[in-house]
Amino acid sequence: MSCDQCGTFNPESAMDYLPVQQLRQLQFSRLKARLHQAYSHVDLYRDRFDERGITDESINSLEDVSRLPFTVKADLRDSYPFGLFATPMRDVVRLHASSGTTGKPTVVAYTQDDVDVWTSVMVRTFAACGLHEGDIIQNAYGYGLFTGGLGAHYGAEGLGATVIPISGGNTDRQIMVMKDFGVSAICCTPSYFVHLLERAEELGVSVRELPIRAGIFGAEPWSDAMRRHAEKAGGIKAYDIYGLSEIIGPGVASECEAQEGLHIFEDHFYPEIIDPDTCEPVPDGEEGELVITTLSKRAMPVIRYRTRDITSVIAEPCRCGRTVRRIRRIGRRSDDMFIIRGVNVFPSQVESALLEVDGTLPHYQIILTREGGLDRMAVEIEVTGDYFSDRVGAIEELKGKLAHAIENTIGIRVDLRLVEPHTIERSQGKAKRVIDKREI
Amino acid sequence: MKINQLSLFLENKPAHMKVPCQILADAGINILTLSLADTQQFGILRLIVRDWERARDVLEKAGCVVKITEVVAVEVPDRPGGLAGLLDVVDQCGINIEYMYAFTFRRGDRAVMVFRFDDPDEALRTITEKGVNIVESVELFAEAGE
What we know:
The complex is a heterodimer of chains A (440) and B (146). In chain A, a hairpin with a 2-residue loop joins strand 16 (338-340) and strand 17. Chain A has a 9-stranded mixed beta sheet, sandwiched between helices. The longest helix of chain A has 22 residues, at 20-41. Chain A is 30% helix and 24% strand. Chain A is of the alpha/beta class. The radius of gyration of chain B is 16 Å and the shape is globular. Chain B is 32% helix and 38% strand. The two termini of chain B are 18 Å apart. Chain B contains 5 helices and 6 strands. Chain B has a 6-stranded antiparallel beta sheet with strand order 2-3-1-4-6-5, with helices on both faces. The model of chain B has no long low-confidence stretch (mean pLDDT 92). Chain A binds chain B through residues 383-385, 388-392, 395-396, 417-423, and chain B through 5, 7, 9-11, 16, 37, 39, 41-42, 44, 46, 63-67, 69, 98, 116.
């Protein structure tokens, strides 16, 4: 029988405990195989390697990864839809796409082997969070093109748990299911869980008295204060998990029961931390941008992907005994992207929506707040002569059009406010685009 | 004869109304009459001043968003049924009123009101034919002691 306190060892987790020397050898051999495949089948990588004179002989150790060119989000977008695929389409069993991007999304592909790896890392995630066979997992991540839902789903099944594929939204039903089905863990964004707690209280349901004992929270940054609140009010342990669709989806890294950083499943995802300005690697322990090279992905190997997430590597061994290194929980990014209700949003998307309506780009500011556990996004727009009309109805109509255009682009409802000219603060002549008051 | 009205965008927040009034005060510009259309989030302040071009310039220089709108000043008998009678005429002409408000002074036994019609030129032509008296801007400002 299992022990929730120390986490159950799942056979899938064996790689988490590999002796370091053996792990490095495995990483290196996988790296060589992936580089060879990427060079042979993906034009972008072949061109970039050739430009730099990188051949098979250039990479003689894991450290040589730093000689390889970076891959950025724009590379994925520019090769839309299938330009970075390294296997024939008939071997691709699944496609996903990034959430909430304007115009063309970024598409990612999986072979059956890739899906198996993904399932395996999600099993390891759940095991690290103290879940095991027989648990009932309520999966409130969205199902669809977003990787969250299906990633967690396959992992939960792989673990031998019972999965409830409830997907996102409909909070009252979530609470009913949690209570009536005796759920032991929920997968969702941390802010959604806080919202769910508040709604449950309104409905007279005390979540802390229910059997639920774990929250598997990801897809957005959150603070220790929020963790303490979720744990206390929900009577659970709240775990931070990390992933991104470009790499595989959820399952790139996960906290263990020690809750002191996220173990990165580095037998599949090789991490580096770089200085985002100089692009030079920084030593373990130092903060910088996380760069990941996939070591197993076949349909779409990604070399030195710049995640834009700021963290640091914790090289010291973890109390839990896992040998795979940890990264600190991600608090901020090296670009202006923000995450609201699990959706990635770039201010440039808001800009393109505003341009679409009127053809002019006003001064605007995005204000993020958290009320009752729910994130809200307001967009303030400075009124110009182009926008201003003497008629209230015309202004209201314009407001509606602007809000609709933004909502259409990012998939999040916004509160649109028109403000007087020169009221949005500018620093060095440039407006600060995002004010995040969420205290996450 | 149409009159140029200034419309200003204001946020619906405390003290926001004072700013443009102070700007006009500092420029020595008198407000003949005004009206405020407000929603929960913003308002439109509409002003009639004698020197509308100078008023627009000082306001814009101070960073306000100003629109010039053509309105019509109409005499209304200052007695029960005076306005109703006028509106009856407007109705007969099939003209649409977007909004209206009053001047603070009287011309004898008549009040003067500002009308914003959706088509001011058409409105002027038709209601004048029906005998409604339009107040010219020169008379208007003389009346107001400007």
